[in-house]
Structure formats: C-alpha cells, structure tokens
Design a protein that fits this description.
With 111 residues, this protein is mainly beta. It has no helices and 8 strands. The radius of gyration is 13 Å and the shape is globular. The chain starts with 14 loop residues before the first strand and ends in a 7-residue tail after the last strand.
C-alpha cells in the first residue's frame, strides 16, 4: 500500500507466502493499525509465536484451531480470536479458509 492512499484494491496487492500452504496480503494500514488477508490450505498453520502487537483474527471462511496461551478453541465463519501483546498464540487450518488479521500498531516487519 502506498502512504496516504485511502483505498486498497486487493487485486493490486502483492501476495506473499510466509510458509507452505499460507499466503498473505497486507491490505490497508497506518502507523497504528493494519489489516491483512491470509489464505490457508488445509493443514497449514501459523506456528506458535508472540509479538508486541495486539491482534484480532476474523474467520472469513474455513475452520481453524486457535491457541492463545494455554487455551484452545475451534473457530468457524464469523468467529474471532484476540491475541494480546506478547502472549504466545498460533493457529492451524482444519478446513481450507481465509482469515482477516487486524493489528495494532501496524506490523512494520510485514511492509
């Protein structure tokens, strides 16, 4: 995304593959907020990790097993998961799907 751009057209965004079976598009962002679209193949995962950013993930499609700290839950379309700052979290795709990830502040390591 270009600085000071109000609109983000998904077809114009470069898609990257941070790991096998997972692709990510960084959509709109400012210094305080970022939205990313992630496509998961069945069985793909985001390994347990932590970062200073707060994160909320919204399930657009598919089924996921999410872990935050010591808690696990199965998430389906319309569900969300909140990952607090510096708490270990991860996700495994049980049925091919799409997540919309929202971060605050933005992930400088993604741009």
């Amino acid at each position: 995304m270009v600085d000071n751009k109000y609109f983000c057209l998904s077809e114009e965004v470069e898609e990257i593959s941070p790991s096998e079976g997972l692709t990510r598009k960084v959509l709109s962002y400012s210094k305080d907020l970022m939205v990313c679209e992630l496509h998961f193949d069945k069985g793909a995962s985001a390994a347990p990790h932590k970062h200073v950013h707060e994160q909320i993930s919204y399930v657009v499609s598919g089924v996921f097993e999410a872990t935050v700290g010591d808690e696990k839950s199965i998430l389906k379309v319309g569900d969300t998961v909140y990952d607090p700052s510096n708490v270990i979290h991860g996700i495994v795709c049980l049925e091919e799907g799409i997540l919309l990830d929202i971060f605050t502040p933005m992930r400088e390591d993604f741009v």
